Amino acid sequence: MKEIKQDNKVSRREFVKQGSTVLATAAGLSALGAPAILSAQNVNSRINLGVIGTGSRGGSIMRAIRDHEQSLITDLCDVYPPNLEEARNYTGNDKVRMHTDWRKVLEQKDVDAIVVSTPLYLHVQMSIAALEAGKHVFSEKSMGLNMKQLNQMLAAAQKHSDLVYLVGYQSRLNESLKMVRELVEAGSLGRITQFYCHFDRNQTWKKEGLPPEFDRQLNWRLYKEYCGGLLTEVVTHEIDQVLDVLGTMPKSASFYGNIMIYKDGREHHDSIMGSWEMEDGVLGVGTAHLSNASQGSGWSLLGTHGTVESYGGTLKIYWEKQARHLDSVGIEHKFTTIKLGQSLKESESPNLTPAKVITFDIDSSYDLATAREFEHFYDCILNGVKPIMDAVSCRNSSIAALMAYHSSMDHGRRYTREQVEAMG
Ligand SMILES: NC(=O)c1ccc[n+]([C@@H]2O[C@H](COP(=O)([O-])OP(=O)(O)OC[C@H]3O[C@@H](n4cnc5c(N)ncnc54)[C@H](O)[C@@H]3O)[C@@H](O)[C@H]2O)c1
After folding, report:
1. Reduced to 3 states, what is the DSSP secondary structure of residue 247?
2. pLDDT digits over 138-163, tens only?
3. Are residues 185 and 96 in the same domain?
4. Does residue 2 lie within any of the structural domains?
5. Is 98 part of any domain?
């Protein structure tokens, strides 16, 4: 088997240092009298960030980026006072301004970019208003709650193409994903026929002990008015990566869901399972649940020549030993001695080569992966780099999740992409 060499060990310090080349470029421009932030309305030497929604993810983002010299968190906003107050500790800025009305953040003239880390139903409203106010936008995933929001968001991002709009599908920047993309493009896995996406946890998702007036709003993951449950919240990460590699979209989806364990008044299922049929006939399974974590979170691609599994920043690659239909596939196998049209003996066992295991340090660290996605965000703002997690591709990932969601809410009825897109 051909060896795949991967030198991807980067410490947090080196990683931050590497990122500072962006700052150096910006500083150089400033010294020449040019604005450091080329497309923003002001000329700050750092990107001033306003963070709207300072809960769990907002806090993780702030902790991951507080060492970054390219940005400064100048404004915080949350409607829940304990979360807002706690966030103050993560900014590294004792002059940070605090707000409870998110529109006030957009009014700050010296704010260059907004981080939207509120519940899903608010992403689009806040992101569009921020673009209208001339701010760059980092919005958490998914892109929007329904088709109407997705369409409005795409139109606004296209209208404000001078500003950066980037969605927080951070795994899209994974080195492991890049390697899978290369394997698939080179034909090394042969013809892909199936994929599997899992996002499995053992946790209730329900926050206890909240003041009654905040209970529903902070337990937003449980209710239809705020998000699409497991599908728009977690499976969306996995299908996003698979779509990126395959370069196709689902034609239809059929999903089932049940509330198996947590009969506490929630509206969203705690267990879902189903399948997508892709435009080119590839079949994919999606599962997620909140009562068993054994399968972990990740995805796999199965092809005529091999299989790749991507879990938590580690790739496992297996090659098929018996590939009796290689002649019809018409792609030469790169990693074994199997020749096109060759039929191997059925008795050969096991059927797969041992897994080639490759771990990618940054991909496997939630903090470093978050820091990396903000490095990309800064790069888009400062250097005009095109966002990788852009409005078009993130709308597609959101549609794939919505197709599964609507089917799961309709007892597994198959929903086509056209039906979901027509929903508005
Ligand atoms: N990319 C990732 O890996 C990742 C991980 C976790 C969460 N997320 C996403 O981040 C977002 C937030 O998730 P979370 O886990 O932090 O939820 P959370 O409930 O912990 O935090 C959301 C915060 O938004 C605040 N909020 C609600 N309405 C508001 C309003 N009108 N104005 C200002 N603040 C408001 C809430 O008070 C809360 O503090 C979600 O979209 C989620 O899908 C992404």
Report:
1. coil
2. 999 999 999 999 999 999 999 999 99
3. no
4. no
5. yes
99 and 198 in a single domain? The answer is no
- Give ligand 1 pocket residues (Cβ under 6 A): 52-58, 77-80, 83, 102, 117-120, 122, 140-141, 168, 170, 217-218, 233
Q: What is the pLDDT of residue 351?
A: 67
Number of domains comprising the chain: 2
Q: Record the pTM.
A: 0.88
What is the Å distance from ligand 1's center to 55 Cα?
A: 5
Q: At 83, which CATH number?
A: 3.40.50.720
Rounded CA-CA distance 151/424 in Å is 8
Find tokens 């703002």 and name the residue. Answer: 381
- Could you tell me if 186 and 305 lie in one domain? yes
- Domain CATH for 345: 3.30.360.10
Residue 68: φ, ψ to 5°: -70, 130
Q: What is the pLDDT of residues 293-329, one digit of tens each?
A: 998 999 999 998 889 999 999 999 988 876 554 544 4
Asked if residue 166 and residue 204 are part of one domain, the reply reads no
- Would you say 173 and 388 are in contact if contact means Cβ atoms under 8 Å apart? yes
Range of the domain at 254: 172-364+394-421
Which pLDDT belongs to residue 416?
98
Nearest-CA residue for atom 7 of ligand 1: 57
Confirm whether 7 is domain-assigned.
Answer: no
Gap from CA of 52 to ligand 1 centroid (Å): 9
CA of 407 relative to ligand 1 center, distance in Å: 25
Q: What are the tens digits of pLDDT across the range 352-396? A: 777 889 999 999 999 999 999 999 999 999 999 999 999 999 999
Least confident span in 18-32, 52-66, 355-369, 391-405: 18-32
Mean pLDDT of 157-174: 98
Same domain flag for 192 and 153 = no
Residue 62 vs residues 49, 154, 304, 365, 370: alpha-carbon distances, Å: 10, 27, 44, 15, 9
Express each pLDDT in 92-131 by its tens digit.
999 999 999 999 999 999 999 999 999 999 999 999 999 9
Same structural domain, 277 and 378: no
Q: What are the phi and psi torsion angles at 368 (to 5°)? A: -65, -35
**Do 309 and 162 belong together in one domain?**
no
- Residues 159, 186, single domain; the answer is no
How far apart CA 109 and CA 130 sit, in angstroms, is 12
CA distance 83 to 244: 34
3 falls within a domain? no
Mean pLDDT confidence for 273-281: 97
CA distances in angstroms from 156 to 109, 170, 421, listed in the order given: 21, 22, 18
